[in-house]
Amino acid sequence: MTEAPNADPQELAKFSQLAHRWWDPDSEFKPLHQINPLRLEWIDRHARLQGKRVLDVGCGGGILADSMARKGAQVLGIDLATKALRVAQLHAMEAQTPGIEYREVAVETLAAEQPESFDVVTCMEMLEHVPDPSSVVRAAATLAKPGGWVFFSTINRNPKAFLFAIVGAEYVLKLLPRGTHEYAKFIRPSELARWCREAGLDLADTRGMEYNPLTQRYWLSGDTSVNYLLACRKP
Predict the structure, then answer these.
(1) Is residue 79 a known part of a binding site?
(2) How far are the Cα atoms of 38, 73, 76 from residue 118, in angstroms, in the given order?
(3) pTM surpassing 0.90?
(4) What is the DSSP code (8-state) at residue 192?
(5) Among 229, 195, 235, which Cα is nearest to 42's?
(6) What pLDDT digit, counting tens, does each position of 28-70 carry?
(7) What dotted CATH number matches 9-233?
(8) Which residues take part in binding S-adenosyl-L-methionine (predicted)?
(9) Is 58 annotated among the ligand-binding residues?
(10) What DSSP assignment string belongs to 126-168?
């Protein structure tokens, strides 16, 4: 396939190297396994996934995509990290997950092919890994049907987020491999909200995600100072 402009080869390589560990709940992807029930319930509460056509952008090894399919959605997961996609496909075959398929394609390319085709579009933990996140937001908005839902999650950009998401998560607690995140690529909620409005989306809900290292518990809250989720609707 032709190389998509809105992808960082180093980021793709980083996640491809870890691909075989994606479904190990005690691996580098343990935080994704731990937060997935929270994300899934929040998305389902807004969008009612049963019977919906769903696109998961930057699906990686398929943790969220697989769980949305098990909620009764017809899910397409897309990513540009080839090895991670192969892992997702293999897991879907082994687990016999119904209603799921995967494709190696850029979201901008798919938006040109299939505008207004999906009831729900999710893009979780990806925007902070691409050169032009606003392009992903525009493509996601294009792919959603009128009245459809678009969900994002990413990391705020401020000193607290640097301390918690990089120093704490990567160096002190070792929840993530060092170098997983780059502070300059973090996104303030005001920036993401502006990109959504510019793409024609209406902001419906914003939630923060917090973590207690002593209890190893995650929960959703009103504190968006570090990790946060944003729900939008297409008019």
Answers:
(1) yes
(2) 22, 11, 10
(3) yes
(4) H
(5) 229
(6) 899 999 999 999 999 999 999 999 999 999 999 999 999 999 9
(7) 3.40.50.150
(8) 39, 58, 79, 124
(9) yes
(10) -GGGSS-HHHHHHHHHHHEEEEEEEEEEEE--SHHHIIIIIII
